[in-house]
Specification:
By secondary structure, the protein is of the alpha+beta class. It has six helices and seven strands. Strands 1, 2, 3, 4, 5, 6 and 7 form a seven-stranded mixed β-sheet that branches. Helix 1 runs antiparallel to helix 2, helix 3 packs parallel to helix 4 and helix 4 runs antiparallel to helix 6. It is globular. The protein starts with 5 loop residues before the first helix and ends with a strand. The model has no long low-confidence stretch (mean pLDDT 90). It binds adenosine-5'-diphosphate. The site of adenosine-5'-diphosphate has 23 residues, from helix 4 and helix 6. Keywords: Kinase, Membrane, Phosphoprotein, Transferase, Transmembrane, Transmembrane helix, Two-component regulatory system. One of its GO terms (cellular component) is plasma membrane. This is histidine kinase. It is an enzyme of class 2 (transferase). It catalyses: ATP + protein L-histidine = ADP + protein N-phospho-L-histidine.
Length: 263
């Protein structure tokens, strides 16, 4: 039996304490860096549409409104589109801050996921048509499939994913939404045959404000918050979300839901 060594014990305690503090300091540093990036991202995202709107309005005030009513009209439309973008950005920000601070509680109910998918398709069909993209439900079951979750929030998840498939899809393309029964879960997949995402960018697409191809994404428009919101909602359900993609071939986003037992 080895006798206690109070000096060695004390040394170990000090070492552990120092390790613990070092890791706490690291966490604080990371949080500070994160906040800095977050703020700089937000201000950048706001500046672009705001300055654009200001530019259009100033040109109109400088006489364009009388000189060329036709172009003036198109400037007003552009200003209005930029304001729309600002308003979507604010809505998304509001949403994500609520999700991150946990202010939002889920209201879990049993609902039919097939019906919800068909509803979302109907709501987005005309938007898809403007990009010449078709939306199809391709699940095996045409009957009701019951899951447990917050229906409104899952609707938001589906809308964000289908909306992305329209934004980043190719003209004349097809988006399919399928469901697959797992052991006690249902897997929902949204697949497009669009631009795809470079493999090196895949792990980052769920980060807030992350937009894969900057120039391409700027043209397409968006907040870079849609997938961060999706991830939050699915993780709040204690379920999983994932993505696989091949550039030039297409992308599949999948998420699971808890199967509701019994009918
Ligand atoms: P947003 O679409 O507003 O930029 P998201 O968080 O929804 O923000 O998406 C983040 C980025 O992931 C997008 O900017 C885009 O580069 C990429 N992305 C998302 N969905 C798709 C998709 N279906 N096909 C190709 N790229 C996608």
């Amino acid at each position: 039996h080895i006798a206690d060594d109070p000096v060695a014990d004390a040394e170990r305690e000090v070492r552990d304490w120092a390790k613990q503090k070092a890791s706490e300091i690291n966490t604080l540093k990371e949080q500070a860096q994160f906040r800095k990036e977050f703020l700089s991202n937000i201000s950048h995202e706001f500046k672009t549409p705001l300055f654009a709107t200001q530019g259009y309005i100033e040109t109109l005030q400088d006489g364009l409104i009388d000189d060329d009513p036709e172009i003036a009209k198109s400037f007003l439309e552009k200003a209005s589109r930029n304001l729309d973008r600002l308003s979507y950005l604010i809505q998304d920000l509001d949403e994500i801050s609520k999700l991150e601070t946990g202010i939002i509680s889920l209201s879990i109910e049993k609902f039919d996921i097939v019906a919800l998918i068909k509803e979302c398709i109907e709501d987005l069909e005309s938007k898809a048509a403007t990009n010449n993209i078709k939306l199809r439900y391709k699940g095996k079951s045409q009957h009701a499939v019951f899951v447990k979750g917050d229906r409104k929030r899952i609707q938001q998840v589906l809308i964000n994913l289908i909306d992305n498939s329209i934004k980043y899809g190719k003209k004349g393309g097809l988006t399919t939404i399928s469901i697959f029964p797992l052991f006690d879960q249902i897997l929902v997949e949204v697949t497009d045959d669009g631009l795809g995402i470079e493999e090196k960018n895949l792990p980052r697409v769920f980060e807030r404000f992350y937009r894969a191809d900057k120039s391409r994404s700027r043209e397409i428009g968006g907040s870079g918050l849609g997938l961060a919101i999706v991830k939050h909602i699915i993780e709040a359900h204690e379920q999983n979300v994932n993505v696989r993609s091949t550039e030039g071939i297409g992308t599949t986003f999948g998420f699971t839901l808890e199967q509701a037992k019994g009918h």
